[in-house]
Inverse folding.
C-alpha cells in the first residue's frame, strides 16, 4: 500500500495542452518533493515544497502544497514532448531526522507532438 | 559538480548468487540512501546511512545489507539472490532539502 496516492496513473496529451498530476495522502508530511524520471535513469528532483499552501513555479511547471500538508499537485502549462516522463511525488514524515522518502506510484506522462 | 555515480550500471546474476553495488555520493553529502524500483512496487526504501551509521531501514529481508565508508561512499549487498530481486537499484545522496539520485544499477536475476 502506497502512503502517497498519485493520480492519474497514465496521462497522454497533445503538445500545447495543459495537465495536472495529483498526489494525496492521509498523512502529514514535513516536506514533499516532485521528481521526473526518464527510462533507464534515476529520478531528477524538480522541486521541494515545505510550507502548507506553498506554490512554486518552475517555468511552465506549477507546484502546490496543500494547506494541511497532506496533498500536492503539479500543473504543466502548454506541455511539450520534452515533458514526457514518469512523475513521482515523495514525502518526508514530520519530525523526521533522516532522509527516508515515501514515494507515490508515479504518473506516466506522454506528450505527443 | 559531479553527480551521484553508481557502478555497475547493469548486472546479470543467477539465483543463489550474491551481488555488491556501489555508490559514490555528491561531494559534501553525508547521507546515502538506497531504493529498489520495480514496475509492480514502485520505489521502495531500503536503508539510509549517515556518517557510516545506518539511520533507517526499510521493510526488506536480511539478505539486503549495506554499509558506508568514511569517505561517504556506500555499498549495498544482496545475498542468495531470488528472481524477485530483479530491479533497478537507486542510490540517493542528500544534504539539506536536496536529494540527488544516481542513474541506478539494473540487476537482472536469472
Amino acid at each position: 500500500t502506497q502512503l502517497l496516492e498519485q493520480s492519474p496513473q497514465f496521462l497522454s496529451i497533445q503538445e500545447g495542452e495543459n495537465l495536472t498530476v495529483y498526489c494525496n495522502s492521509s498523512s502529514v508530511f514535513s516536506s514533499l518533493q516532485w521528481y521526473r524520471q526518464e527510462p533507464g535513469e534515476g529520478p531528477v528532483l524538480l522541486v521541494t515544497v515545505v510550507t502548507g499552501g506553498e506554490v512554486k513555479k518552475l517555468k511552465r511547471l506549477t507546484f502546490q502544497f496543500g494547506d494541511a500538508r497532506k496533498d500536492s499537485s503539479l500543473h504543466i502549462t502548454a506541455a511539450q514532448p520534452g515533458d514526457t516522463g514518469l512523475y513521482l511525488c515523495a514525502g518526508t514524515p514530520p519530525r523526521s531526522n533522516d532522509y527516508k522518502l515515501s514515494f507515490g506510484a508515479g504518473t506516466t506522462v506522454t506528450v505527443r507532438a | 559538480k559531479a553527480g551521484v555515480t553508481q557502478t555497475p550500471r547493469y548486472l546479470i546474476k543467477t539465483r543463489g548468487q550474491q551481488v555488491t553495488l556501489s555508490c559514490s555520493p555528491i561531494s559534501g553529502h553525508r547521507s546515502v540512501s538506497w531504493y529498489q524500483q520495480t514496475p509492480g512496487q514502485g520505489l521502495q526504501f531500503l536503508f539510509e546511512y549517515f556518517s557510516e551509521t545506518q539511520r533507517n531501514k526499510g521493510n526488506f529481508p536480511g539478505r539486503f545489507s549495506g554499509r558506508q565508508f568514511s569517505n561517504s561512499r556506500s555499498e549495498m549487498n544482496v545475498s542468495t539472490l531470488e528472481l524477485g530481486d530483479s530491479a533497478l537499484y537507486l542510490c540517493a545522496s542528500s544534504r539539506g532539502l536536496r536529494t540527488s539520485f544516481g542513474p541506478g544499477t539494473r540487476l537482472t536475476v536469472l
In short: The CA atoms of residues 40 and 87 of chain B lie 10 Å apart. Chain B touches chain A at residues 4, 31, 33, 35, 42-45, 48, 50, 55-56, 58, 90, 92, 94, 97-104, 106 (CB under 8 Å).
